[in-house]
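Let's practice the habit of predicting before peeking. Look at the sequence and jot down your guess about where helices and strands might fall. Then scroll down.
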Amino acid sequence: MTAVTTRSPRSRPGRQPPDCCTLSNDLGWALGALSRCYLKSVAATFADVPGGPRGYQVLAAAARDEHGSQLALAQHLGVDRTVMTYLLDSLAEAGLIERRPDPADRRARRIVATRHGRAVLDGLGERLRAAEDQVLAGLDDDGDRQTFRALLQRLAVHAAALDSATSDVCTSGSATAAALGGC
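Done guessing? Here is the structure:
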């Protein structure tokens, strides 16, 4: 019988994690562990934002004038349109966003960040970066972090395209979507 030596992840070439459990090589487990860590790290950051992380995403998109209409924004973020209505109501009541008539389509409303909303967003951005740094601290350097972000963004865009091609995440009946809080 041979002795098994355990090394810390830092001592291994390529910084591979130790085989601490059979799930450590499972993509779902890894995504879930990273997601839970991220959500815990940012929970305090979004505590004062109506709708929490979703409210932040809506506010950030409104500040950048992305997906201006309420329906387009709901589809982009994977939020049921009824839920989006309540979320926008809460953000508007807090003075963070406004619904304005869309000059191109008078039936639609554009979602726009207010001056107060932009100021709140700036403060949230600083706190969010600190929380993200905590989550990404397991990567050695800034280059690794930038590579990880770029790869993650490519995967997210691909996944969003697949999701929109199949159906709305809230109506697909997917156990995975429900487990990950997609609706």
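How did you do? Residues 49-136 form a domain with the Arc Repressor Mutant, subunit A fold (CATH 1.10.10.10).
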